[in-house]
Amino acid sequence: MAFESLSDKLQDVFKKLKSKGKLTEKDVTAALREVKLALLEADVNFKVVKSFIDKIKERAVGQEVLESLTPGQQVIKIVHEELIDLMGSTQSKLTFSSMPPTVYMMVGLQGAGKTTTSGKLGGQIKKMGKKPLLVACDVYRPAAIKQLQVVGSQVGVPVFSIEDSKQPVEIAKAALEYAKANHNDVVIVDTAGRLHIDEKLMNELEEIKSAVKPQEILLVVDAMTGQDAVNVAESFNEKLGIDGVILTKLDGDTRGGAALSVRSVTQKPIKYVGLGEKLEDLQPFYPDRMASRILGMGDVLTLIEKAQQSFDAKKVSALEQKFRKMEFDFDDFLEQMQQVKKMGPLNQILGMIPGMNTQKLGDIEVDEKEIAHIEAIIKSMTKEERKDPSILNGSRKRRIAAGSGRDLQEVNRLIKQFEQMRKMMKQLSDMTKGKKGKFKLPFM
Question: Which residue range(s) make up the domain with 244?
């Protein structure tokens, strides 16, 4: 999980601070020393760490903080604000040209996920009501064009390519004319990468830049490479001039050094982050939300957005009526589990809940498997059994256990838990009878 290691260490530091009634300058200095070590271990750039700690110390050792009623909370507030500032203060959105088509040039080294990210970005832009076109300018890597075509078909975005051409600049020029003729208002140019930065690569990218005059040059970097990602960003910015960064594989980076360093070093914003392999896992980067998650404050806004995208409003309304009438069955239960799965991995969802301690989520993979086991059991039931669990006798349960590949004990446990949930929903329904409006818990 992104920032897991750093988040755990910072939360431990702040827990100690909050436990003290009064703070001295010595207490703050000791806490900031631990914060500094945690950031360095997270592979954050040394200069960035030094500047960050100096800013916090300057604000945190003032009379106003040390003599306040909640000095620990005040220090955490300062760290939170400085973290947001470090990562860019506000969300940096894509800009669009006043004269279509808007051209985005995707650059980066091989292996960062540039081609897949180009396709994902095309899907995001299509959802904005635009008509994007993907352009295959990586003529060197085997199957690069085919890869872009596959991703393009998955997001419903056309791909322009010239199969036999080895001239990326000519392909980019032809794509621009094609886009104008076919009313594509956004052009995303997927350029070639290299294993490392070299003169030939940069010359080619400069020629493409000159030919298509991109609205934005977006650098795709692998967050898991840590400090190397920052060095790559710095080099590309110096030689080509970038307008924004897309950090991929952030879900696999428990340290988070790249996300905390790249903006400060390049002075260019992080525009998107990749948090998984699915096409919808490319998400806009919000510095304030990320800072809150790092400090264990959750990310309720992203959680709500994910729920809105994943849950069908009509189905939620129908389910509410079933709760009222106590008609909730195993089919409904299965559907709700599948809706939750659409929101992403459980560890990511739980990390967005304020106060959730990630240290206690060590067995989360087991929970993911548990969901798959429950699905297998329910899918092994007949239609009648799902609708009316009361008919589940011994022989039926044995058949379900054999069909799902699970133990009879697991089947019995699931049925018992389901019945307990239905009883609880009935009690809540009885307690709220006669009340108008939506079905709510009695204390809400």
Answer: 102-286
Residue numbering of the annotated binding site for GTP: 108-115, 190-194, 248-251
Cα–Cα distance for residue pair 11/76, rounded to 1 Å: 10
Query: Can you give the pLDDT at residue 428?
Result: 59
> Does residue 224 lie in a domain region?
yes
Let me know whether 279 and 311 are in one domain.
Answer: no
Whether 206 and 347 map to the same domain: the answer is no
Q: Is the pLDDT of residue 440 over 70?
A: no
Mean pLDDT of the chain: 81
Domain boundary among 235, 259, 286: 286
Query: Which of 89-98, 365-374, 383-392 has the lowest average pLDDT?
Result: 365-374
Same structural domain for residues 359 and 426? yes
- Residue whose entry in the numeric block shows the structure tokens 């030689």: 239
Instruction: Provide long-range contacts, Cβ within 8 A and 24+ apart, for 237-243.
Output: 237/266, 237/268, 239/197, 239/202, 240/107, 240/202, 240/205, 240/206, 240/209, 241/217, 242/107, 242/217, 242/218, 242/266, 242/268, 243/216, 243/217, 243/218, 243/268
**Residue 127 and residue 265 in one domain:** yes
299-313, 338-352, 400-414: the lowest-pLDDT one: 299-313
Amino acid letter, 406: R
Integer Cα distance of 202 and 240 in angstroms = 7
Question: Does 406 share its domain with 352?
Answer: yes
Binding-site sequence positions: 108-115, 190-194, 248-251
pLDDT tier for residue 360 given thresholds of 50, 70 and 90: very low
CATH code for the domain in which residue 415 is found: 1.10.260.30
* pLDDT-wise least confident of 107-111, 143-147, 234-238, 296-300: 296-300
pLDDT at 444: 30
pTM for the full predicted model? 0.68
Domains held by the chain: number: 3
Residue 14 CB coordination number (10 Å): 21
